[in-house]
Amino acid sequence: MGMWQRFTMIFKSKANKALDRAEDPRETLDYSYEKQLDLLQKVRRGVADVATSRKRLELQIGQLDQQSAKLETQAKAALAGGREDLAREALTRRSGLTTQLNDLHAQLATLQDQEEKLTQASQRLQAKVDAFRTKKETIKATYSAAEAQTKINEAFSGISEELGDVGMAIQRAEDKTQSMQARAGAIDELMASGALEDATGTSKDSISAELERMASTSEVEDTLAAMKAELTGGPTPEVTQAPPTPAVESGQAGAPKPAGDEN
After folding, report:
1. Is residue 208 part of a domain?
2. CB atoms within 10 A of CB 47
3. 163 CB-near residues (< 8 Å, 6+ apart)
4. Do 193 and 206 contact (CB within 8 A), yes or no?
5. Whole-angstrom Cα distance, residue 122 to residue 114?
6. Other CB atoms closer than 10 Å to residue 75's CB: what's the count?
7. What pLDDT score was predicted for residue 236?
8. Which residue in 58, 48, 47 sits closest to 107, CA to CA?
9. Residue 203's pLDDT is what?
10. CATH number for the domain including 33?
11. Is residue 221 domain-resident?
C-alpha cells in the first residue's frame, strides 16, 4: 500500500468518525420516513392515473356501445323501409365500431389488471411505511432514553471527579489546620517556659515569675504590718525583705524556729 493510499484511508477513517459523531439517528430515521411517504404518494398518484385512464376507456366503450346500438336500430328501420342498401351501410359501420370496441375492451382489461396490481402494491407499501413509522418511533424513544442515561452517567462521573478533588482539598485544609494548630501550641509552650524571648520584655520564665510573686507578697505583708503598728501606736517594725527560705525536712538541725518562739 502506497503512502497516498494510506493517507486516503486515514482521511476516510477520520471523516467517518466525524460523521458518526455528527449524525443523529433520529434525524436520519425521520428523513427516511419522509422519503418513503413521498414514494408512497407517487404510487398513489400512479394508481389514480391508471384509474382515470380506465374510466376514460369505460366512457369511450359506453359511447361506442350507444352508437353501435343506434346503427343496429337504423339498419333495421332501413331494411323495413325497403332500403337494403342503407341497412347494409349501417351494419358496415356497426361492424367497424365492434372492432374498436373489442380493442377498447382489451385495453380496459389490461388497465384493470394494472390498477388492481398497483392498488395491492400501494396497500403493501402503506403497511410497510406504517410499520417503519412505528419502528422508527420506538428506536427514537430508545435512543433518547440512552442519550439521557449517558448524560446522567457523564454528570455522575463529573460529580465524582469533583468530589474527589474536593476531598483532596479538604484533606489538605485539615492537614494545614492541624499544622498551624500544632505550631501555635508549640509557640504558647515556648512563651510560657521563657524559652522564647518576648521582644516587649513582658514575658518571663516560671522561676522568675514565682520569685517576683513572692517578693510582691512579702512587700504587701510588711506594708500592712507597718500600717497596723502606726494605728496602735506601737513601734514600727523594720521592713526587711528576706530572700526566700529554702524548704527543709521536719526535725532537721539548723531549721529556723517558728515566728514568736524565743525559747
Report:
1. no
2. 20
3. none
4. yes
5. 12
6. 21
7. 57
8. 58
9. 52
10. 1.10.287
11. no
- 65: Cβ contacts below 8 Å, ≥ 6 apart: 101
Residue 194: alpha-carbon gap to chain centroid: 63
Distance CA 86, CA 94 (A): 12
Residue for cell digits 428506536? 139
Q: What is the pTM of this model?
A: 0.46
**Cβ neighbours around 71 below 10 Å, total:** 21
Report pLDDT for 206. 67
What is the distance between the alpha carbons of residues 221 and 228, in angstroms, rounded to a whole number? 11
With respect to residue 26, please indicate whether it lies within any of the assigned structural domains: yes
Tell me, letter by letter, the H, E, C secondary structure of 87-124.
HHHHHHHHHHHHHHHHHHHHHHHHHHHHHHHHHHHHHH
- Contact (CB, 8 A) for 78 and 92: no
Say which residue the cell 432514553 belongs to. 145
Q: At which residue does the C-alpha cell 493510499 appear?
A: 5
pLDDT in tens, 209-251: 677 777 778 888 888 888 888 888 766 555 555 455 444 444 4
Please compute the mean of the pLDDT values over residues 17-45 and round it to a whole number: 83
Cβ neighbours for 85, distance < 8 A, ≥ 6 positions apart: 78
